[in-house]
Write a structure and sequence with these properties.
218 residues; alpha/beta; Rossmann fold; six-stranded parallel beta sheet; 10 helices; 6 strands; 41% helix; globular
Length: 218
């Protein structure tokens, strides 16, 4: 069973190295977005590049902003399941402040260089114990990509609730707080819990797939 894994905004496949899944995880690397490219069109390009959907059985995993991409891809192909970590499944799960920023189009008018938060602010918002990894990710982030991704996040229109959804959220996530009654909660988990709570998340995924998708993932 192949699981295509899409990292968070600006992050890369390093965040998946902490997971201990019993399945073939295929990291999907970000590609450069075209100017003002809609998230749906961007998702189509990732599908084409990674040939997602050409396997008989496969799953999709998305972290944070990668969860939005995972959702859009899942609407276009037919994965056996979609896993969202520290993310949202629909526009209704976005916080009021993010929707407000989207309505005002604030991200569009901000210079990209202003979207690089000071390290102490990043530590607080992500709530990570692994500051060295977060520093490395932030230092390697393309701020033009960040601006595009944030703009797509705050203006996301999706209202389609996916079938076969596994949504794992942290109770202390400051960036994308857990909403809805369909989430598996990680107690005290924060936005970087893909790393900090990797064992607990891995156990949940392995157990859920064996229990609910045993015929498909064997």
């Amino acid at each position: 069973m192949k699981i295509f894994a899409i990292s968070g905004l600006g992050a890369d496949q390093r965040i998946f190295e902490y997971l201990t899944l019993e399945y073939d995880l295929i990291p999907v690397e970000w590609i450069k977005p075209n100017p003002k490219e809609p998230i749906i069109e961007y998702s189509k390009r990732l599908i084409k590049k990674y040939k997602i959907g050409e396997h008989e059985t496969f799953g999709i995993l998305g972290v944070s902003f990668g969860g939005l991409i995972a959702t859009e891809i899942s609407k276009l192909v037919t994965p056996k399941f979609t896993i969202l970590i520290s993310s949202v499944a629909t526009r209704n799960e976005l916080s009021g402040i993010l929707k407000f920023i989207g309505r005002l189009k604030l991200i569009e008018i901000l210079p990209a260089k202003l979207l690089n938060p000071p390290k102490p602010v990043a530590y607080y918002m992500f709530g990570t114990q692994n500051k060295a990894l977060l520093n490395a990710i932030l230092d390697a982030t393309d701020l033009n990509f960040t601006k595009w991704a944030l703009s797509e996040l705050v203006t996301w229109k999706n209202e389609t609730q996916l079938h076969n959804l596994i949504k794992i959220c942290g109770t202390k996530d400051k960036l994308l707080p857990a909403k809805g009654d369909n989430a598996i909660l990680i107690e005290k988990g924060q936005h970087f819990m893909i790393v900090d709570c990797a064992k607990e998340i891995s156990d949940i995924i392995n157990s859920t797939l064996k229990t609910s998708y045993s015929k498909d993932v064997a």
